[in-house]
Write a sequence for this structure.
């Protein structure tokens, strides 16, 4: 099912030492966001914590990393975000965003909040994960 929706944009900046995922969750809960999409996110980190494809646990490292991209869905119920970062040599890695991604100088984020839909997650028997279910807002 494909649904169309109007939206509002929230733009904010995270400061040094803030946790990228926890901060996005905090904004979603504070503004009671039911259906949000990360439109853009750029900035830098001093630590990353990502879960790579087909892995049970996260991988973390400290250093200096540029946020190349962050994308995903956001609601006060749950977030599903992926992050791509580049190290000092330009080597780029990416994965599922976990807690523990610490902002170095800044993270500039734009969220689109959809007015007419709700993003919900339900257990999918095929994948074994809570997968996205888009519903029309009552």
């Amino acid at each position: 099912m494909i649904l169309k929706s109007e939206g509002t944009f929230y733009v904010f900046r995270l400061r040094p030492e803030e946790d990228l995922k926890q901060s996005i969750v905090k904004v979603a809960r504070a503004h009671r966001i039911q259906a949000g999409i990360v439109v853009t996110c750029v900035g830098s980190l001093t630590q990353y914590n990502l879960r790579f494809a087909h892995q049970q646990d996260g991988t973390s490292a400290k250093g200096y990393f540029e946020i190349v991209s962050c994308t995903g869905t956001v609601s006060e119920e749950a977030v599903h975000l992926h992050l791509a970062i580049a190290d000092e040599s330009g080597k780029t890695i990416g994965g599922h965003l976990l807690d523990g991604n610490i902002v170095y100088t800044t993270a500039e984020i734009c969220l689109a909040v959809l007015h007419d839909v709700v993003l919900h997650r339900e257990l999918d028997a095929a994948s074994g994960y809570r997968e996205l279910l888009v519903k029309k807002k009552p």
Notes: The longest strand covers residues 36-51. The chain has a mean pLDDT of 96.
